Structures are given as C-alpha cells and as structure tokens.
UniProtKB/TrEMBL annotation:
CDD domains: Ferrochelatase_C, Ferrochelatase_N. One of its GO terms (cellular component) is cytoplasm. Its main location: cytoplasm. This is Ferrochelatase. HAMAP family: Ferrochelatase. It is found in: Cytoplasm. One of its GO terms (biological process) is heme biosynthetic process. The keyword Cytoplasm applies. Keywords: Cytoplasm, Heme biosynthesis, Iron, Lyase, Metal-binding, Porphyrin biosynthesis. It comes from Flavipsychrobacter stenotrophus. Catalyzes the ferrous insertion into protoporphyrin IX.
Length: 347
C-alpha cells in the first residue's frame, strides 16, 4: 500500500498579470491596489483613487515595463516560483504547490489541488516568499490564505512560516548570491529594499509608541521589531555585511518603488543613484534582498532604469546582483524549514 502523505507546502508569492496586455495589467493592478492592506484608505476613497486615477493612467505604462522583462513562458516572478517548486519537489516527497496573492495561480487553486490529490493531508505549510514583515506583503498573504482556507472548509490545518529576515540559513544563502560579485575592488554595495509608506510602519507598531516616534527607533530594542519592516531590512543588511566582512561606509541601504505622494521610507533608491556619483561612489553593486525571486521591480526598475539613472549621474560601473531564485542553498533552506516547521525561523 502506498504511504499516506500528511503534509504539503505552498510557496506563496505576490503574483503578476496574466500577460502584458494593458487589459490584463489593469485587472491585476485593480486587484492588487484594492487590497486594503496595500492602499489603506477607506473603501470608497480607495476605489476612486485606484479605479478612477491610478490604474487608468498606470496600466499602459506598467504593461510597457512588463514587456521589457516578459519571457516566452510568462512573468519572471511566476516562472521562477514554479522553478523553485520543481527544484524543491526533487528533494522532498511531500507535495509542493504554488499560489499568488494576486492573479494566477490563486490560493484556492493551490488548496483545491492539494485536497483533491492528497486526501490524507493533515497540514499545509505556507511559505510567504517575503523575508520581511509588511502589512502589504507578508500580512496580506497570510490573512488571505487564512480566509480562503476557512471558506473552503478544507480538511487540513495550515501553518505559516514567519518572516525570515534574520534566519542564519537565509542570510548565508543571500551572502552566497552576493559573494561572486565582490572582487574587493572598492565597489560600493547598495542594499535596495522595496519601500513602503511610513504610515504602514506606524500602523503595524504593536506597542503604539515606538516606530518612527522614538529617535533611531529601529536600533533601540522594542517588541515592535517583530513586525517592523524597516528594522528587519536594517537587520538583514547588518547580518549580510558582517558575514561578508564589509567595512563601514562600503555599503548602504535605500528603498525603491515608491507609489504616490505620501511619505515612504527613505532614502529613495532613485535619489541615491543621482547622489552617489557626486559623493565619489562611481562603481556600484546593487542587491535587492526584499525579493527572493527576480521580478519587475528588480529586472526592470533596478537592473535597467536605476542603472541608467546612475550612469547619467556620472557613475562608471554598475553590477545588478540577481535574487537567490533557484540557488541550491536557498532550495535546501526551504526544505529545512518545511521539515522543521515547529521550530521558529526567526531568532
Ligand atoms: C517585497 C515585498 C513588497 C512590498 C512590501 C510591496 C509593497 C507595495 N507595492 C506597491 C505597489 C506595487 N508593487 C508592484 C510590484 C511588485 N511589488 C512587489 C513586492 C512588494 N510590494 C513585487 C515582487 C512586485 C513585482 C511583481 C511582478 O509581477 O514582477 C506594482 C506593479 C508594477 C507597477 O505598476 O509598478 C505596484 C503598483 C504598494 C502600493 C506597496 C505598499 C503599500
Ligand atoms: Fe510592490
Ligand atoms: Fe522600527
């Protein structure tokens, strides 16, 4: 008799449009930006903002950006997540599924596939592919997964792996992805993280009086750090810099992909690209640790557009460091977390 499979894993990523047509991009952006954890205005204002202003104007520009990175298989982010699935499936016997927060494949599709193919499943481990906690990434993915799970009355329970920004295996895998680019030739290493609104940092603060309220908040001990995106980005940077032995001043942090006019985390990557050559930084490497898979924000924004900004401002060399993608140590790390799901991944 065949062995009963009791556990499975779902790799959860953000998602992409189904194609680069303006129609598909608009549908994707509407779903994404109507998420109250992404644009957190009251529903009516959000609807006017998103459907009346942002997506009618942004969709065609965004579709053009997607066309520059699209492959014959589709979106890099979705395809890389499938590649991770295949690599992981080679080294674990339990089923591995993929789900996107927005677009396809949906969370429901992943749960349904598992439930149909594996009737003995008792637990599904969710891995949101975000190293850092933000209400607009990790939180919305997990809440959505819980909602769909409740609605579908699936026979298995679910357990989510926590943000892994300081997990030693994640840090080592990230370091391994950066190391081949470091030649000890004086190049500056920029850690460019996805930005978020400052308002979100304050909203997520579980103490209500620490984040962006206390001077140098991210470096002062606080329970708020368990869900503080900026603290977690700084921590990843510090741990990677320590492991690479980078001297102070040879690396820095910036935040990319701002949308709209409100205050987002600074310094902005675009502003730094213009300033760095004037400060004497002419040779640059850029790594994007808020993403584990390459996507629009790394391949188009950082590898193409920000490079142009840096070179136009007087930069001389620019190395974009790809995400971990299907790197073997990253795949082995996911396997380890899955097999030890009851142990915390965050220190
Ligand atoms: C790293 C995690 C992410 C956080 C946090 C995040 C916050 C956030 N994003 C937007 C708006 C957009 N993001 C877009 C693309 C995009 N964002 C992430 C990840 C995070 N976003 C990824 C991986 C991607 C790429 C998706 C892909 O298909 O490759 C886009 C769409 C593209 C565009 O038109 O620029 C938007 C819009 C907000 C408003 C936000 C926090 C409030
Ligand atoms: Fe984003
Ligand atoms: Fe903080």
């Amino acid at each position: 008799m065949s062995e009963k499979i009791k556990r499975g894993i779902i790799l959860m990523n953000l998602g992409s449009p189904d194609s680069t047509s303006t129609k598909d991009v608009k549908r994707y952006l509407d779903e994404f930006l109507m998420d109250g954890r992404v644009i957190d205005s009251p529903y009516l204002i959000r609807t006017i903002l998103v459907k009346g202003i942002i997506t009618p104007f942004r969709s065609s520009k965004s579709a053009e950006a997607y066309s520059t990175i699209w492959t014959k298989e589709g979106s890099p982010l979705v395809q890389i997540t499938y590649q991770v699935q295949r690599e992981l499936q080679k080294i674990i016997k339990e089923p591995v599924e993929v789900a996107m927060r927005y677009g396809n494949p949906t969370m429901k599709f992943a749960y349904d596939s598992l439930a149909q193919k594996y009737p003995d499943l008792e637990e599904v481990v969710l891995l949101p592919l975000y190293p850092h906690y933000a209400m607009s990434s990790y939180e919305t993915a997990v809440v959505h997964a819980e909602d769909v799970h409740k609605e579908g009355k699936y026979p298995f329970k679910i357990a989510a792996i926590a943000p892994f920004y300081n997990n030693p295996d994640y840090i080592s895998a990230l370091v391994e992805s950066i190391k081949p680019h470091i030649k000890n030739d004086g190049k500056h290493l920029l850690f460019s993280y996805h930005s978020i609104p400052e308002r979100h940092i304050k909203k997520s603060d579980i103490t209500g009086n620490h984040c962006l309220k206390v001077e140098d908040c991210c470096n002062k001990p606080s329970a708020a750090h368990a869900v503080c995106y900026r603290h977690q980005c700084y921590t990843t940077t510090r741990l990677v810099a320590e492991q690479l032995g980078l001297p102070a001043g040879s690396y820095s942090v910036s935040f990319q992909s701002k949308l709209g006019r409100s205050a987002w985390l600074t310094p902005a990557t675009t502003a730094r690209m213009e300033q760095m050559p004037k400060e004497g930084i002419k040779d640059l490497m850029v790594v994007c640790p808020s993403f584990v898979s390459d996507c629009l924000e790394t391949l188009e924004e950082v590898a193409i557009r920000e490079k142009e900004n840096f070179m136009e401002a007087g930069g001389e060399t620019y190395d974009f460091i790809p995400c971990m993608n299907t790197q073997q140590s990253w795949i082995e790390t996911i396997k380890k977390w899955f097999l030890n799901v009851d142990e915390p991944v965050t220190a």
